[in-house]
Amino acid sequence: MSRPVPEAAPIVGLVLAFSFALFGFLFSSDHLATVLVGVGLLYPFVVFGIVRSESPQTVFVPDAV
To answer: How many domains does the chain have?
Structure first.
C-alpha cells in the first residue's frame, strides 16, 4: 500500500476533466472554452503519470480490441 501508483493519475485527470466538461456543456454556451479547460485539466495528470512512472510504456498499455 505504500507503493506510488502513477498510472492512476490519468484516471483522476479523466474524472476531473469529464466532470468539468459535462457541467460546461450543460450550463454554458461557450463550448470551445469548456473543451480547452477540460484538456488543460487533463494534461498535467497525464504528464505526471508518464514522468513519475518507472516504465512510461506501462502507463498506457495498448489493448488488442
So the answer is: 1
